[in-house]
C-alpha cells in the first residue's frame, strides 16, 4: 500500500518549473540507458533500443557500468556468454541441475547466437558499429573502471569515459531513461 505525500503547493510548482526547463533544453527526443550486465542476452536490449532511437532521430546514450563494461571492452565484447543456470526465461528452459553441467554455458551461448543469426539480428560487434554510425554515445563509467582496473585503452574506439554526474546530467534531459 502506498501513502500519498502532500507537498506544499510552492514545492510542486518549483518542481514543475524545473521539469519544464530541463526538457526545454532538449528539442530532440533523448534516450538514456544504464547498462550494468555483461552477458550476451543483456547486451542486446541496450544496443537495440539505442540504435532504434538513433534511427528515429533521437539522441541516445548508453552508460556502461559494472559488468556492462564487458560489452565495450576490446578483450571481452566478442566473447559475451549466456548463463543457462537460474535463467527461467531461457527459450528452452533448462533445469538448474543441467545448467550446472560443464559446457552448458557454451551451448546456451551458441543457441542464442544461432537464434539471432537465423532472425537476421546483427551480432554484438555489428550493433556496436551501428551505434557509432548512428551517433549513439557510448560511455564507460569512470568509477567502475577504476574499481575493476579497466583502462581507457581497454575500451573500444569511440567509447568515452565519464562519471555518474556527467551521465546524470545527460539523463536529466532525457524523455526516456532505462536501467538494463
Can you give a write-up of this model?
This protein is of the alpha/beta class. It has a single domain (28-179), classed as Hypothetical Protein Ychn, Chain: A. It is built from 7 helices and 5 strands. The protein has helices at residues 9-24, 40-55, 96-99, 104-118, 124-134, 142-148, 164-172; strands at residues 30-35, 59-64, 137-141, 159-162, 176-179. It has a 5-stranded parallel beta sheet. Strand 1, helix 2 and strand 2 form a beta-alpha-beta unit. Helix 2 runs parallel beside helix 5 (124-134). The protein is elongated and about 60 Å long. The relative contact order is 0.20. The mean pLDDT is 85.
Blueprint (SSEs and pairs):
Elements: H1 9-24, E1 30-35, H2 40-55, E2 59-64, H3 96-99, H4 104-118, H5 124-134, E3 137-141, H6 142-148, E4 159-162, H7 164-172, E5 176-179
Parallel strand pairs: 1-2, 1-5, 2-3, 3-4
Radius of gyration, Cα only, in angstroms?
A: 19 Å
User: What's the CATH class label?
Assistant: Alpha Beta
Query: Number of folding domains?
Result: 1
Can you write the helix and strand succession as a string? HEHEHHHEHEHE
Kindly report the spatial arrangement of strands forming the biggest sheet: 4-3-2-1-5
Oligomer: single chain
- CATH-level-4 superfamily name: DsrEFH-like
Amino acid at each position: 500500500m502506498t501513502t500519498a505525500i502532500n507537498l506544499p503547493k510552492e514545492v510542486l510548482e518549483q518542481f514543475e518549473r524545473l521539469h519544464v526547463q530541463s526538457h526545454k533544453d532538449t528539442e530532440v527526443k533523448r534516450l538514456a540507458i544504464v547498462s550494468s550486465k555483461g552477458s550476451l542476452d543483456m547486451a542486446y536490449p541496450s544496443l537495440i533500443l539505442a540504435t532504434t532511437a538513433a534511427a528515429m532521430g533521437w539522441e541516445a546514450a548508453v552508460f556502461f557500468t559494472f559488468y556492462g563494461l564487458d560489452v565495450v571492452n576490446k578483450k571481452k565484447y566478442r566473447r559475451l556468454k549466456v548463463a543457462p543456470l537460474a535463467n527461467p526465461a531461457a527459450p528452452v528452459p533448462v533445469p538448474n541441475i543441467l545448467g550446472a553441467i560443464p559446457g552448458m554455458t557454451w551451448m546456451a551461448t551458441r543457441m542464442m547466437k544461432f537464434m539471432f543469426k537465423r532472425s537476421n539480428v546483427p551480432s554484438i560487434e555489428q550493433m556496436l558499429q551501428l551505434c557509432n554510425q548512428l551517433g549513439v554515445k557510448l560511455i564507460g563509467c569512470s568509477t567502475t573502471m577504476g574499481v575493476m582496473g579497466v583502462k581507457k585503452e581497454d575500451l573500444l574506439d569511440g567509447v568515452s569515459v565519464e562519471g555518474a554526474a556527467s551521465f546524470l546530467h545527460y539523463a536529466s534531459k532525457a524523455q526516456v531513461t532505462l536501467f538494463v
